[in-house]
Structure formats: structure tokens, C-alpha cells
Model the fold of this input.
Amino acid sequence: MSTLELKNVNKIYPNGFHAVHDFNLTIDKGEFIVFVGPSGCGKSTTLRMIAGLEDISSGDFNIDGKRVNELGPREREVAMVFQSYALYPNMTVFDNIAFGLTLQGVDDDVIEERVLKTAKILGLTDYLDRFPRALSGGQRQRVAIGRSIIRKVGIFLMDEPLSNLDAKQRVTMRSEIAQIHREAGATTIYVTHDQTEAMTLADRIVVMKDGYVQQIGTPKELYFDPVNVFVAGFIGEPPMNFIHANVKNGRIAVGENSLDLTPVLKNRMAQYEGKRIVFGFRPEAIELGKKEDAYQINALVELSEMLGDNTNVYVVAGEERAILKVDPHDTPEMDAAITFSIPYKSVYLFDEETEMVIK
Ligand code: ATP
Done:
């Protein structure tokens, strides 16, 4: 287990593209960190700089307090699982898992003991004599992970390791990865663009966009206290609803509804008078009907999607559209006129210009 420290790390590719800007993060021993963000935001580049596969253009990268910018991947003692993993087709599962240790010249009996232990953690004990072609995608992925964790390194890096699996296998492997982390305890950095993977696996999440860190926090912090519109919209499914509006006499119009911002803006009312703001609320924060201490909104139902445990109701109020998550037993009819309530405490306001949350 190792402590990692990235200080003002930048990546400028040889063609001049600035892919990562001033990345700062300290990772504790044994922590599970997830880098999340849309395609091209710099997640893989950052991971590859940590692995030693990509030069760091400026800034410091320290492992256990020692600067390692110039060290190669092997000397950094990291294990990496990639999106596309290549198993050796002519080797059995046993030999694939053992490969790294065999190369290091580790004794056969030690290899056998470690392979058996690794296979047990990964549920591969019954498959050790098989060749990769006789395995499912999920089993192959587990062999690839086994090949990495058997090395007992302090740092474990994973770049979208589940992206080649189907939805069901992804859910199973996700919990297995959590389990492996609990047992092996290695400091782990995991890259994904899937916010569910991020939320379920991470001790802390790093949300990135266009090469910039947007926010670093626990899943709970990101969900309840997003710093800006991007993070608020990225974490949560369906995403947070946003209504862009002008503040006039302390109110905003949402279709026919006029909402008094006093309960949420309080003493900052004057500051935002005449300005554009973004009014945000999560689909799951609403209640149908008229409630106390809440905004009451009249809207029309455009569509309902029954998902089993809940229904997503698409509503429109004037020009504004929103998604509401409701109990399937309460699903309103199509074209029905409904009233729903958004508790004041569940409202997020953002400055439209800076996109930063108004606290
Ligand atoms: P994805 O989820 O699609 O893998 P990512 O967040 O991992 O995306 P990176 O692969 O880190 O993104 O790429 C970040 C940016 O750097 C992208 O705009 C990409 O086009 C650019 N980039 C990556 N490799 C190079 C390179 N060798 N030269 C120039 N630009 C590059």
C-alpha cells in the first residue's frame, strides 16, 4: 500500500495539446479513487502519467513522499488493467495468471500457492486448466485482473476494465472488484465514464472535464454538494433538472408558476436581482401533490417510463421540461395536469454565468 501525491501536474502532448491542467490530489494508503468524466477529459492521460507510461510535462508525482517523475513503470511498482486486455491464447488460465511471477523467476511452489490464492479470490479455481478461448468475457476479465493482483504491488491502476462486458457482467464484476480491493487493500485508481461505477466503488471521486478537475469528494459529497452545474448534472441518474431563468422581484417564472426565491436565496436576494440563474432539482427529490416548505409546480405530463422500482415522468411547464422520479403506483396519466412539490432544502441554485453553485 502506498501514498500517492500529484502536485500541479500538467500534460502537454508533443502536438501542443494541453490535456491535463494543474492536477492536484493526495491519495491515502489503501484508498479507492475513481477518475470520472466524459470522453476526452484527460482521465486516461492522468492514469498513464501515474503508471509511468506517459511523461509528466510539469509538476511532481510522489509515491510515499519520493518524487518518481523520472522512474519507469516497472520501478514504480504499479499494476495496471486496461480496457482491452490481452491474455496469452496458448497458455492456460494458471499460466496466464502466473506469467509475471514466472518472468521474475519466482520459485514454482510459491507461484502455485499465489496462483491458487488469487484464483480463489476471483472465483477461477475451476478454470485453471482452461485456455482463454473457453472462457466468457467476464471470466477473461477476471484472469486479466488476477494477472495484475498476483504481483502484490502497492498501487493498482484500472482503465475502464469493465467496458468490454455486458450490463449484467459489469454489475457482477463491479462487486467483485470492490471485494478484491477489500481483501488485497492496494491503493487503487480506477478510470471510468460511468457514474454508477464511480459512485459504487469509490472512497473518493475525481470529476474531470476538458482536462480540469471539477471536484474531488466522496460519492455523498458529490451528490449532495456539487460545486457546479457540470458535477450536479454528471452525478445522478436521471440527471438533475435545470431551469435557466431571470430573477425579477426576487422571483423566477417556470411556465405559469412564479417561484419566490426568498426561502433558498435568503440574504443574497439583492445580489442576484436582475441576474440569470440556474434552478436545479433532482428527479428523485420531488413529491407529487402540494407539500409544505416546498415549491409547488403545475405541469403537464408528456410521457411516463415504467422502470419497475420507479417511474420516470417527463413533464412540461411552459417551455421548461423536467423528469420526475415517482413511485410506480402513483404514475400519472399521459397529458394529465399535475402538481408536484420540490422541498426548499432540495433546491440547488447556480450562477448562470460562472456555473458555480450559489451557497
Ligand atoms: P476516454 O474516456 O475517451 O478514454 P479520457 O478522458 O481518458 O477519454 P484521454 O485519453 O486522457 O481522455 O485524452 C484527453 C485528451 O488528450 C483528448 O482530447 C485526446 O484527444 C488528447 N490526447 C490523447 N492522447 C494524445 C496524444 N498522444 N497526442 C495528442 N493528444 C492526445
Remarks:
- DSSP finds ten helices and 20 strands in the chain.
- The longest helix spans residues 167-184.
- The chain has two domains: 4-234, 241-351.
- The radius of gyration is 25 Å.
